[in-house]
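Saturday, quiet lab. Running sequence design on the structure tokens for the scaffold JK sent over.
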């Protein structure tokens, strides 16, 4: 199957091949479907150099090692994956449907990361875990670029009192007694606090629930909703 032209959402700040898929690129449930798609999108990629994780809404991240096999990584209960550029072209991805797909890229070392940041991972600051790990690997926050891809914005993301209280009131919008969380602003502020320059952050204004180009866990029935993929390759 050919996937051209792609309808992916990309960031001009991130130079390596990367993207967040839309409904028009297909729904990606199985690893096979993702590997099939990415092997068409990323010229000359070895299918054994494409890595996804078993996401569980945690704040844990994993740094890929040269010996890691895709099947092993696929079973890891983490929500962020970090790739240090090696000799062979490799790709890392996360699956999303309303949660934030965060793609990070260090323009100096070419270390990159993909993060699945739902409300729990955002509350537990998975961005910090990821950036701090990248710094341990030699990155400087000032040279890291970030793409906060399409996610459910505060036009649609209604939360209950308990969840709203986990976040500063400045991130909560109240409309007629209903509370809405601006989860992407939390992530953006976390990145800036860690030293990533604001000019290095591309924060997508697209809401996955409002915009029919995207699958949405929120908008669609939870049993039938599709899944999108956010990836980067170096
Ligand atoms: Zn919306």
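Result came back. Writing it out in full:
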């Amino acid at each position: 199957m050919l996937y051209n032209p792609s309808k992916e959402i990309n960031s001009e700040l991130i130079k390596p091949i990367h993207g967040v898929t839309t409904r028009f690129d297909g729904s990606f449930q199985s690893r096979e479907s993702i590997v099939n798609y990415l092997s068409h999108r990323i010229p000359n990629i070895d299918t054994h150099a494409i890595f996804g994780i078993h996401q569980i809404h945690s704040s844990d991240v994993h740094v890929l090692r040269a010996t890691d096999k895709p099947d092993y990584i696929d079973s890891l209960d983490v929500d962020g994956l970090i790739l240090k550029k090696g000799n062979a072209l490799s790709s890392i991805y996360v699956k999303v449907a309303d949660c934030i797909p965060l793609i990070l890229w260090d323009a100096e070392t070419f270390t990159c990361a993909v993060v699945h940041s739902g409300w729990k991972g955002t509350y537990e600051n998975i961005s910090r875990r990821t950036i701090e790990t990248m710094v341990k690997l030699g990155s400087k926050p000032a040279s890291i670029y970030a793409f906060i891809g399409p996610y459910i914005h505060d036009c649609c993301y209604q939360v209950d009192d308990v969840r709203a209280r986990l976040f500063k009131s400045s991130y909560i919008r109240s409309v007629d007694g209903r509370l809405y969380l601006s989860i992407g602003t939390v992530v953006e502020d976390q990145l800036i606090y860690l030293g990533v320059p604001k000019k290095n952050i591309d924060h997508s204004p697209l809401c996955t629930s409002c915009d029919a180009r995207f699958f949405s866990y929120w908008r669609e029935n939870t049993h039938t909703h599709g899944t999108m993929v956010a990836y980067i390759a170096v």
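Notes for JK: The chain has one domain: 18-233. The domain at 18-233 is CATH 3.60.140.10 (CNF1/YfiH-like putative cysteine hydrolases). Ask whether to fix the surface positions before the next round.
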